[in-house]
Write a structure and sequence with these properties.
6 helices; C40 family peptidase; 199 residues
Length: 199
């Protein structure tokens, strides 16, 4: 009877141990599954890009285009403003597209860039610094004594280009309105008085 009890006890113990092993194995596999799921989700979240691939390129393009824009000088802006009046008829005292005189053209072009000059050409000739024709650049002013008033400055032009030993300038003439002329033209070369730099 004692041997029987002992065997029964051993069987029960064995069954209990097996149950415990199975139970613990099931629990650890459940944990492993949970851990794998969490890890997989974590990896998926990290690997999903929220930002487009070319995001970094966009600011660089903007910088390069703004650098191009900023390469323009004050003189370039002033000249561009003056050139829009090309073909405008002459009007004494005029400062608009309906009519323009020589000093009005220069006055308005500089004013477009917040540089205020006197309204009359002979007074403009007192501003800035006098320079030789060899040193002139775009944006500089040319002053002339024309017609019957050769005793004083009465005409002004804005230099738009300096190339091949010639100086191009925009101005308003009483006969042709706002035009671009060349200082090498005999009339303008003879009437030329001085060049001045404002910028």
């Amino acid at each position: 009877m004692t041997v029987l009890k002992h065997n029964l006890y051993m069987k029960k113990s064995l069954i209990l141990i097996l149950c415990l092993i199975c139970f613990s194995h099931c629990k650890s596999s459940k944990r492993a599954k949970k851990n794998n799921t969490v890890k997989t989700r974590h990896v998926n979240i990290k690997s999903a890009p929220d930002i487009p691939v070319d995001y970094e390129i966009i600011p660089n393009k903007e910088k390069s285009s703004s650098a191009k824009k900023s390469s323009k000088s004050q003189a370039d802006y002033i000249i561009d403003y003056a050139l829009q009046f090309k073909g405008t008829r002459y009007k004494w005292g005029g400062t608009t597209k309906s009519g323009m005189d020589c000093s009005g053209l220069v006055f308005e072009s500089f004013r477009s860039y917040d540089i205020l000059l006197p309204r009359i050409s002979r007074d403009m000739a007192k501003k800035g610094s006098k320079i030789s024709l060899k040193k002139v650049n775009t944006g500089d002013l040319l002053f002339f004594k024309t017609g019957g008033r050769r005793n004083s400055i009465n005409h002004v032009g804005l230099i738009t280009a300096v190339k091949n030993n010639d100086i191009e300038f925009i101005h308003a003439t009483s006969s042709r309105g706002v035009i671009v002329s060349h200082l090498n033209e005999k009339y303008w070369l003879n009437a030329f008085e001085e060049a001045r730099r404002i910028l």
